[in-house]
Target: TetR/AcrR family transcriptional regulator
Amino acid sequence: MPRAGLDAEVVTEAGATLADEIGIGQLSMSILATRLGVKTPSLYKHVDGLGALTHRIAVLGATEAGDAVEEAVRGRSGVEALAAATQALRGYVRRHPGRYAATTGARPTGDDDPLGPALARPIASLAVVLQDYGLEPDEEIHALRMVRSMVHGFATIEDTGGFQWAADVDESFTWMIDFLDHGLRGRHDLHLP
Amino acid sequence: MPRAGLDAEVVTEAGATLADEIGIGQLSMSILATRLGVKTPSLYKHVDGLGALTHRIAVLGATEAGDAVEEAVRGRSGVEALAAATQALRGYVRRHPGRYAATTGARPTGDDDPLGPALARPIASLAVVLQDYGLEPDEEIHALRMVRSMVHGFATIEDTGGFQWAADVDESFTWMIDFLDHGLRGRHDLHLP
DNA sequence: TGGGGTGGCTAATGCCATTAGCCTTAAGCT
DNA sequence: AGCTTAAGGCTAATGGCATTAGCCACCCCA
Model:
C-alpha cells in the first residue's frame, strides 16, 4: 500500500480548501480524510485534532490575507491605497470564506503562537494606509477600528448572502470607500491651521 | 414523576439563553436537556431537532433586535436616531451574542418563514433613520449597507474580543457614529442647489 | 542488509443527534 | 367521580463523529 505523501502543510491546505467549499463549521476530520484518500485516524499523525487543524487554518488565512493586503498596498498611497487594501481584504474573504471564518473567533493560545502576529499583519497594513490621512494620534485608533469594522462587516454579510436587493454590491463597496476617503480627508483639513 | 412544563417557547428561550452563555456553536441538545432537567429525546416533543432550534433562536434574536432598534429610534431623529439605533443594535449583540450569531448565517427556508420578516425589521428601522439625511435615492441603499456593515462588523469584532489595544471601545463607537453623521450630512449639502 | 522511525491501518471508546416505542400523567368529557 | 385520550415524559437502539491505542509495512540510511 503506497503512502499518501501527507504532512502538516498538505493537510492544513486541504482542510482550508475544504473549509472554503463547505464552510468552516462543516469541516470534519472524516470528510477531510476521505478527500485525502486516507482513513480518519491517519490525519492525527500530522495534525493534533480538529481544534488544532482549524487553528492552523486560521494562521494560514491570516497570513494569506496579510500578504494580499500588503501586496495591494505596495506602491500606492492615499485613496488608492485605501481602496486597494480594502478590496484586497474583501476579495480574500470572497475567495476563501472558510479560511477567513477560521481567523475570526480564533485567539492566540500563548505568546509564541504564530496566530497573534499573523492576525496583526492585515490590521497593521490598514493602519499604514490610514497614516496618509494625517489624523490626530488619538483618532487613528478610532479610524482603524472603523475601517476594520466596515470591511469585516461588509465582507461577512456579503459572504452569507445577507445583501438582498438587486443593487450592485460592488458599487456599494466603492461608494463606501469613497465615503470613507472624503470623511477622512475632511478630518485632516479640520486639523490644519 | 411530575411534568417539566415545557413547550416550544420555553425550550427556544432556554436554548437562546444557553447560546448566549456558551456560544451558538457549542449549543447542543444534550446540554440544553440537562439544563431543563429533562432527557435529550424529550426535547424532540417540542422542537424538531437542533437545526430547527437554532432557526427558532434566529427568529427570536432578529425579532428582539428589531424591537430594540425600533424602541431606541422612537421619538428621535437625525444624529440622535442614528446613534440610538446603532447603539441599540450593538448593545443587543453584547447582551445576546448567541442569539445574534444565530441570525447571521440563518436564511429563510420559504416565503412563509417568519425569519424573513424578522431579519428585515432592524434593517428597515435603520433605513428609516437614514431617510432623515435626505440622500439621493440611489445612494440610500449604499448608505444603508455601509451602516449595516459597520455596526455588524464592530459588534462582532467586539464580541470575539478582536479589539486589542486599551483604547476605549465605547469611544471608538461614538467616534464612528460622529464620522458617519458628518459624512452623511455633507452628502446632503452636496445635493442642495 | 537490517534496523528504526514514519505514516498508514483496524479496533475500541465515548459523545452527540435522532428515531421508535412505551407508559404515565393530566386534562376534559360524561 | 370515572373514563378516555393525547401530550409529554422515559428507555433503548442506531449511526456519525472525534479521538486514542496499538499494530504493521514501508522506506531511508547505515
Notes: Chain B touches chain A through 35 residues (CB under 8 Å). Chain B has nine helices and no strands.
